[in-house]
Amino acid sequence: MLTRRHIRVKVLQSIYALRQSNNPDLDKQEKFMFYSIEQMLDLYALTLQLLVEMRLAEEKFLKTSQKKHLATEQERNYSRSFLDNKALDLIEHSEPLNTFVENRNINYWKQDDEYVTILLKELRSQKFFKEYLKNTETTFEDDRDFLVKVFKRVIAPNEKYYEYLEDKRMTWVDDFPIVNTAIVKSLGKISEKNADALVLPELYKNEDDREYAQQLLRKTILNDEKLAGAIEGKTPNWDQDRIAELDMIILKMGISEFLYFPSIPVRATINEYLEIAKEYSTPKSSIFINGILDKLVKELTESEKIKKVGRGLR
């Protein structure tokens, strides 16, 4: 689920936090970085649990409505398509997911059920929901496609839901886009054979990614003077203390990848940090950073300090 770009963002945030601290401690910051990364799975699981809670709330609402003395015909003969959604059954009864939610104590919807109500009300107003309820019999593919639409059209764009997550855990704001993408992919592929793996995916693609996060943080911090020295003289119109803090960190991380990560192509490093700069720094940062990194690549290549391994890595 985790991408290299998101790992870079987490490292960037950790280095920035360390530099702002009155009592910087690399070991503690590293532990917090990994804790922050692990919270992505919490958000993923919490969101899937939200789909389950929306269905449970709808069923409870319908049972109450049908008991009314003047229940409408629609309330008495409500379609069970949503209540019997077969793809959602796999999520609700996933042992790995339920165990994870219980162990992490993150089933917040029991106490924050007002957000379930808000999203359910929004779902009921959707045309695709009304069309779905007209189907007396749905295939597994119909049910799966319906869940994707619920997430993409109702949950993900809802501002109240976003504000709730922002208030709950600040780190989730940056995790929101990548977790959303992962959920859409998982919902679109879920089946009886792969349900457990998709409902609770691996956080890292492999152990190399976790090692990469740790090494990028440590090599950038521990080689700070050397990396700053590489930048010196490459900014004729700017003293280093006038360069934006985030820009300086991004530059040092890029140089760190040039020097200490032989398997990462130079162009991939530059492209990734330019995109990060566009999102997290000033409007002109990406142009500034691109110019500095391009100069450094030429200089470090000529001095044979950049040593990449494999085809097409320069």
From TrEMBL:
Annotated GO biological process: DNA-templated transcription termination; transcription antitermination
Entry annotated with the keyword Mitochondrion: no
Domain NusB/RsmB/TIM44: 202-298
Signal peptide interval: none
Annotated Pfam families: NusB (PF01029)
Keyword Transcription regulation: yes
GO annotations of cellular component type: cytosol
Coiled-coil residues: none
Keywords linked to the UniProt accession: RNA-binding, Transcription, Transcription antitermination, Transcription regulation
Gene3D superfamilies per UniProt: NusB-like
Annotated GO MF terms: RNA binding
Similarity comment: Belongs to the NusB family.
Name of the molecule in the record: N utilization substance protein B
Annotated source species: Patiriisocius marinus
Gene that this sequence comes from: nusB
